[in-house]
Design brief:
leucine-rich repeat, single chain, Leucine-rich repeat, LRR (right-handed beta-alpha superhelix), signal, about 550 residues, LRR_dom_sf, Dev_Immune_Receptor, mainly beta, repeat, 22-stranded mixed sheet, about 10% helix, binds 2-acetamido-2-deoxy-beta-D-glucopyranose
Length: about 550
């Protein structure tokens, strides 16, 4: 998913993780086997890490009083055996621990006494352990805690009392547990970021209803069937909602009120429609709805979505766009792959000046219409158009006015030929894929001028001969013509073509294996003449110049 990079960036920020150069820390010899480094040159925080410790005693011995008591310490103890936890406490370290991470330590019980001396801890991660319940007694020792991460720790339930002792908890990560029960009053109203993804929730018990400060909410990969009356009622600050991979059968009504929403991920659910819920989401930039059961879009579905850049509607059951896209003036990427469209009209995207990528692959499109050619100004600059796996017999000249098109994929259709105006005006086209069609000639490409075309994929068609087919393709560098019925190749096929790679002269490669090319003296001559002109015919092993003599002898005989 394109979103995943950004998603992990969100999470890194959320968890306060830093990725950066390691700066020296003066006591690094004394604290071995623990290590340390400065977080940043200007910050007062030192990152201390102890990994693969055999006991907590070892940690205490290594770190006790090794840092000035006013230095902020971010302490991480990971992959360690802490069976003697109860014999010590963090107090003994004499450190101002502002961040504490205890990860992959196989912790199942956290004795309260151990966690004294953590009055300055703002960040606690207990992720990747096996905790049967939220350790309330431990959290009580950290009155200024703002961030808590108990991800992947086998929690099954969150009770009303669990976070009650933390007056200012803002970031809470509970992802990847087995949570199926949430107390009605379990979530603190101070929360700004909440991750409940990858759990076993089938109901939220109204616990998010009053969260007015929430900015990011992750509910993905649960078993939620409805979010009605479950999401924050006001949610004026909610910018991101991820409820993908659930069983939602209806758009959550509350989203209507989320004026600040910028990213909405609802993929892999069972939504039948959008019900006009998103009409006013003026700040929405990314909308992911792929893998649902969406059948219809009303013309005013996206009425005020001025900011929408990325619309993912793949793997639904749309048969028509119903003019719904016209208000999307910021749209850059439109993905409609794997739907049931039988026709696509370019009038559906008229005026969408920012639109660059359209994916219409794997539909049932047999007709392209609404040609843009007559427009006075070139309004769209579609860079990539995917129409592979459709039912097109012809292009009907519909792409004529699609200015700026660089990549066009028409593979796996039913194309039999190109008409004279099908490819006119595609002066920026660099890559054309017409493989797996029924083309019996490429003649039109000799009459049309495609000055930028570098890659032509036309394998698995019904081509029988190559004449002057490349004469309109002066920049061609790659022609895949494998698995056709080509018998003859004329010598001046590429006479007007001169491949250039990154501005430097290159060689045009023509792939011909899987064709019944007749090997005779004339072909050998053609191969040699073309090679002198930087054109290489490949896949003709049965007819290489090395058997020149035998061929000539054979034809002489
Ligand atoms: C922890 O302390 C108890 C008694 O105070 C002692 O018997 C035990 O050996 C100690 N364990 C470790 C691992 O130091
Ligand atoms: C984790 O702790 C449990 C007991 O809490 C123990 O049975 C198990 O062996 C420990 N696993 C490892 C890898 O130390
Ligand atoms: C809902 O919350 C109540 C009160 O907090 C709790 O008793 C109940 O178990 C919760 N139900 C679910 C399904 O989590
Ligand atoms: C087009 O919009 C109208 C009006 O909202 C609606 O009745 C119809 O079902 C929509 N058609 C499709 C195919 O989405
Ligand atoms: C469209 O979405 C599908 C998944 O639904 C994805 O595989 C494909 O790469 C997307 N197309 C584009 C152009 O991003
Ligand atoms: C065109 O689409 C087909 C089928 O989806 C794919 O295999 C092929 O790689 C695409 N062509 C190009 C040039 O990207
Ligand atoms: C080789 O290039 C020259 C100059 O562009 C051209 O006149 C000639 O026809 C070409 N020969 C072949 C076999 O393409
Ligand atoms: C040309 O040489 C290849 C092997 O290099 C051989 O398989 C093929 O039969 C030869 N063809 C002719 C016509 O001699």
């Amino acid at each position: 998913m394109p979103g995943s990079v950004t998603m992990s960036t969100f999470l890194y920020t959320l968890l306060g993780l830093t990725v950066g150069a390691s700066l020296h820390c003066s006591v690094r010899r004394e604290i071995s086997p623990c290590t340390c480094r400065l977080q940043e040159p200007t910050s007062n925080t030192i990152l201390v890490a102890c990994e693969r410790m055999s006991s907590f005693t070892q940690v205490v011995d290594a770190l006790r009083d090794k840092f000035p008591p006013d230095t902020d310490i971010a302490l991480r103890i990971a992959y360690s055996h802490l069976d003697d936890f109860t014999n010590h406490s963090f107090q003994e370290l004499g450190l101002a621990v502002t961040k504490l991470k205890l990860n992959h330590d196989n912790l199942s019980s956290l004795p309260e006494s151990v966690f004294s001396g953590l009055g300055r801890t703002e960040y606690l991660s207990l992720a990747d352990n096996s905790l049967p319940a939220v350790p309330q007694q431990v959290l009580r020792k950290m009155p200024v805690l703002k961030t808590l991460d108990i991800g992947r720790s086998q929690l099954q339930a969150i009770t009303d009392a669990d976070f009650q002792q933390i007056p200012d908890l803002q970031h809470l990560v509970l992802a990847g547990n087995d949570i199926s029960q949430l107390g009605h009053a379990s979530m603190p109203h101070t929360l700004r970021h909440l991750h409940l993804g990858r759990n076993k929730l089938s109901h939220l018990n109204g616990t998010l209803r009053g969260l007015t400060e929430l900015e990011w909410l992750f509910l993905n990969d649960n078993q939620l069937t409805t979010l009605d009356e479950q999401l924050p009622q006001e949610g004026q600050k909610l910018a991101l909602l991820h409820a993908g991979n659930n069983l939602l059968q209806k758009m959550p009504q509350d989203i209507r009120n989320y004026n600040a929403i910028e990213a909405l991920f609802l993929q892999n659910n069972e939504l039948p429609n959008l019900g006009g819920i998103l009409q006013r989401a003026r700040k929405l930039k990314r909308l992911h709805l792929c893998h649902n059961n969406i059948r219809e879009l009303s013309p005013d579905e996206f009425n005020e979505l001025d900011s929408l850049e990325d619309l993912q509607l793949g793997h639904n059951q749309l048969t028509s766009l119903n003019g719904s896209l016209l208000p999307l003036r910021s749209l850059r990427c439109l993905n409609l792959t794997n739907n049931l469209m039988e026709e696509f009209s370019l009038q559906e995207i008229i005026g969408l000046r920012r639109l660059r990528i359209i994916d219409l692959s794997h539909n049932k499109i047999s007709r392209l219409s609404g040609q843009l050619e007559n427009l006075v100004e070139p309004e769209t600059r579609i860079v990539e158009l995917r129409l592979d796996y459709n039912l097109l017999h012809s292009l009907d000249g519909a792409l004529m006015g699609v200015h700026g098109l660089q990549k066009l994929n028409l593979s796996n259709n039913l194309l039999e030929n190109f008409a004279p105006d099908d490819l006119i005006g595609l002066e920026d086209l660099r890559i054309l894929d017409v493989s797996f069609n029924r083309l019996n000639t490429l003649e039109e490409t000799s009459k049309t001028f495609l000055p930028s075309l570098e890659y032509l994929y036309a394998s698995h068609n019904a081509l029988t001969e190559l004449k002057q087919d490349f004469h309109g393709l002066p920049s061609l560098c790659w022609a895949d013509l494998q698995d056709n019925f080509i018998q003859s190749i004329e010598q001046d096929l590429a006479a007007k073509t001169r491949c250039r790679m990154h501005g430097l002269p290159g060689t045009l490669k023509v792939f011909l294996s899987g064709n019944p090319v007749q090997c005779n003296a004339q072909l050998l001559e053609t191969i040699a003449a073309m090679e002198a002109n930087f054109t290489k015919l490949l896949g003709l092993a049965h007819c290489s110049p090395s058997n020149m003599t035998s061929v000539i002898t054979a034809s002489a005989a």
